[in-house]
Amino acid sequence: MIDCKKLINEAINAREYAYIPYSNFAVGAALLTESGKIYSGCNIENASFTPTNCAERTAIFKAVSEGERNFVAIAVVGGKHGEKVSEYITPCGVCRQVLAEFCSKDFIIISAKNETDYKEFTLKELFPGSFNKESVL
Ligand code: THU
């Protein structure tokens, strides 16, 4: 059973570290591994725009770089800095592609406004027909 509240709270905390001088849109993510560890991440923008890294990819790259490759769920919280989160946001296309590299079709994506108001999706729902390693290997 996934502790959604805990995962969402970790995402809310990570959101505080968002580096967002260009968009002022702060995102936090918290990724749960099969072993029960949580890796958090925030979005990190750049003056050259393209190198900007989303919160979800920050979390997954942190985890993979520490030897984790098996994931159960990710919580995502995002909105304008300093305002109440009013939208359910879901990972962008690039992040969906990165998630699909490591996560199964039934990986859970929790899109939250706060710890009690959230929606759950599977990766398959958000990223059907994806191109993945089975095609290449
Ligand atoms: N962003 C994320 O971090 N995650 C998402 O799911 C959507 C977008 C970031 C990228 C950029 O820093 C800002 O939000 C506005 O697009």
Ions, cofactors and other ligands present here are: tetrahydrodeoxyuridine
How far apart lie the N and C ends? Answer: 33 Å
Tell me the fraction of residues in β-strands, as a range. Answer: 15-25%
Query: Could you tell me the radius of gyration in angstroms?
Result: 14 Å
The computed structural class is alpha+beta
Biggest sheet, open or closed, and with what strands and sense? 5 strands, mixed
Corresponding CATH architecture = 3-Layer(aba) Sandwich
- Care to count the β-strands? 5
- What is the domain tally? 1
- CATH C-level name: Alpha Beta
CATH topology: Cytidine Deaminase, domain 2
The whole-number mean of residue pLDDT values reads: 98
In DSSP terms (H or I, runs of 4 or more residues), the helix count works out at 5
Low-confidence stretches: none
Give the CATH H-level superfamily.
Cytidine Deaminase, domain 2
The coarse overall form would be globular
Give the strand order of the largest sheet, numbering strands 1, 2, ... along the chain.
2-1-3-4-5
Helix content: 25-40%
Descriptive report:
Helix 3 links the parallel strand 3 and strand 4. The chain has helices at 4-15, 55-64, 93-102, 123-126, 133-136, and strands at residues 25-33, 38-42, 71-80, 108-112, 118-122. Strands 2-1-3-4-5 form a 5-stranded mixed sheet. The chain has a single domain (4-136), classed as Cytidine Deaminase, domain 2 (3-Layer(aba) Sandwich), CATH 3.40.140.10. The protein starts with a helix and ends with a helix. The protein is globular and about 45 Å long. It contains 5 helices and 5 strands; from the N terminus they run H-E-E-H-E-H-E-E-H-H. It is α+β, with helices and mostly antiparallel strands and 137 residues long. It binds tetrahydrodeoxyuridine. Tetrahydrodeoxyuridine binds at residues 20, 23, 25, 27, 43, 45, 52, 54-56, 76, 78, 89, 91-92, 95.
